[in-house]
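Appendix B, record 7
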Amino acid sequence: MIDPTLLMSLFAKRTKDALVKATHQATVYGQGGNPAMDDIIRCYIENMRDTNSPRYMTFTEYRRNHTKDDVLSCSAIMLEYPYSKRQQLEQAIARLAYPTYQIDTQSDFTAKAEARIVVAFPLAQAIKDPRHYTRAASLLWDEIGIDATTDGCVSATFLFAPYIINPRVIFRNADEPLLDAKLYIEFNEGHLVYAREEQKAPEMIVTDDGLFAFAAR
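Structure tokens (predicted):
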């Protein structure tokens, strides 16, 4: 069984000028006696609660700032949904049969934050190109079939806010093969889905690289 290394970055805010506050590496399964990534995530969130220092989290590695140009690699794909979609989401995860992290989240760290849930797909190999991340995330969003994701969550620069009061991190489908984004994209070549990126784009116009299709104005 392969046990790829994942990287978790933490930020104090979501703005583009935000600097990485901390990073931590861990493998998916924790082979060799080291903590597995789900344990690391849980410990980080518990520390945020105990020290009253909430941080936004991501499986994307950055040089310095929270910008697309600073993205170095993405080791897991994250999609976020309203917590009301939890049962549907768990059924979809079981159907897809990839290992996933299910993490309770919130829209932000205010008292009026909305309850949400992130499903993160750890990757067999990290993605270096943010466009390929968005393509794989868009395909997963389409395959899951729940049209209620958080705006921007198919972007490589997406950050999520963990629910720190009562942390809940579940690792599902641990015995299934890890998602290989490169093979997944190749297998779905020609399957056009709406690219839910942060910016609006111009009925089915395909980009030059063949990765995305947009509804024409």
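Remarks on this record: Confidence is low (pLDDT under 50) at residues 197-202. Residues 97 and 176 are 6 Å apart (CA to CA).
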